[in-house]
Amino acid sequence: MVLKTLFCVIFLIQICYGANILAIVPTPSYSHQVAFAELWKELSLRGHHVTLVTTDPRNDPNLPNLREINMRRSYRIWSETDITEDQLRQPELQELIHESNKFKFDLVMVEVFYPELIAFAKIYKCPTILVATIGSTVPMYQDLGNPAHPVLNSDINVPYDGTLNFKERLISTLFYWRFMYFEYFISRPKRQETIDRFFSNVTSIKFDELISDIDVVLVNESPLLKGVRALGPTTVPVGGGIHLKPLKPLPHLHIRKSRKRVVARANNLTPSSSPTSP
To answer: Which residues are the signal sequence here (predicted)?
Structure first.
């Protein structure tokens, strides 16, 4: 009986391995950072080691597996310079680029608006996941094989959803062609220059090759709110609510009645902050 029990226990035991993950979210905006903050937290709590480049570090001592590289300086210089290049000049990222023998990453996760940073995945020879905090642009959807016609699926920068009327379809189509010109003749050549400037010593790669090597994109939006669209297997909507935390009960209220007024004072308020007149 003991041998049978021991055999069953050994049979049920599973060996689990934690991954080393490099996550890069460069945008100096709290809404971009908070969208996937719980993801980084939960990955670290489940035994993965997460190195996060962020402008809003949480500095939580209870998350020893979460190493945060603080790029809060980007808030001050966003309107003055290219934040991607400024962050790549910082010592912590220079170390990740030029001293890769010190690190080992099994996965690189990059915010979808900075695909040039997929070059880190080339350095560490690992898969890539893009995270889209507020949806993705039409070119990125198309790069991943998703149909993205401007009449059916307007770009995130166009304020139209659902079934469009003729005027909205016309505006969406004109914006599409303008945006595609900007993307392929201005934005992507500039991204290639960034790759050549910061990564040429460690890897020789073209931007189009980086795009073709994307494995998965996590899109932070819900089909219930945004509408249903055709998506390939590598584009995964994650609901648009992973940043939400469990609800907490409201503070207990102390009710005091008088002939002239009713004062409701929560526990976190001082008597001096309560109203003094009806």
So the answer is: 1-18
At residue 231, φ and ψ (nearest 5 deg) are -135, 145
| Contacts by residues 11-16 (CB-CB < 8 Å, ≥ 24 positions apart) | 16/47
Helix (H/G/I), strand (E/B), else coil: 133: strand
Which CATH superfamily groups domain 18-147+204-237? Glycogen Phosphorylase B; (3.40.50.2000)
Angle at 205 between CA 18 and CA 25, to 5 degrees: 45
- First-residue to last-residue Cα distance in the chain: 78
Exposure b/e, 121-132, CB count within 10 A at least 16 = b: bbbbebebbbbb
* DSSP alpha helix (H) spans, 63-108: 74-77, 83-89, 91-98
pLDDT in tens, 52-104: 999 999 999 999 999 999 999 999 988 788 899 999 999 999 999 999 899 99
How far is it, in rounded angstroms, from Cα 278 to Cα 268? 22
Query: Considering only CA atoms, which of 226, 192, 227 is closest in space to residue 207?
Result: 192
Residues in the chain, total: 278
* Pair of tokens at residue 214: 């994307």
263 — phi, psi (to 5°)? -110, 120
Locate the domains of the chain by residue range.
18-147+204-237
Q: What angle do CA 70, 97, 52 make, to 5 degrees?
A: 30
> Residue 144's Cα: distance from chain center in Å?
18
Q: 107 and 19 in contact (C-beta within 8 Å)? A: yes
* pLDDT tens digits along 138-191: 888 888 889 888 888 888 888 887 788 999 999 999 999 999 999 999 999 999
Residue type, 181: Y
